[in-house]
Amino acid sequence: MSASNLLSILIVSLIVDFVVRPIHAAGDDRRTMEPSSVDVTQSRQISTCLMILIVVFLVHQIQAADDDMTMMNLSGNLAIMSNKAAKKTMKALTDGTRLTPLARNQFTRNIWRRLLYVPMHSPLTLTQLLRGPDPGSSRAHMTYVMAYHAHQYESCKTHRVMISNTLDFDGRLQERSKISLREHSKTLAVMMKHYLSLEVNYGIELGIVAQHIQPLFTTQEETGHGKSTCILACA
Question: Which residue of 23, 49, 101, 108 lies most exposed, with the fewest beta carbons within 10 A?
Fold first, then answer.
């Protein structure tokens, strides 16, 4: 359940406890209480309820501001990690870097780690990170999720290039290992498509070009094609 839903439930609960019920109770007791006493009691209860609502609202706003700050910091960290992964990918492409025997044996585990990865101190859960953009989300929220998917995409790309290098150059691999690596490569391709799709969608919502379609976007513009062509090509 989201924080906003919890806040709504809390507000309704407070209104019922501090306004509706006391009013009904006061109505039942009007025969035994003075009118002025009833009015004072209701006024105090309503004032207390309003004060609680204000405090709850302020706490919610402060928490949202703290979350936005945390997400902006995490976005910066993810951008750095994504750039490092991109350099590792380029190095693998130019140098033909291959998977070590240990890396091959642990590849299934590494894929699961990548699928379940959530940055430390993330205000968002994995489920929230994998959702599509919500126009009601803050810009910090959408920037963070976009950076998350850019990092995930680049990390998968690095491993896929290394798998390709291993299959191309390591003739000593057993057929079973080759089949396993090809399956891992297909899995990574599906993951990359998913991460890229979300990265692009968040970029559209933010009004910016996603990191991993910028080169293609530039190429399409230079050849007279529009942004829509680029996005379709990357989907």
Answer: 101
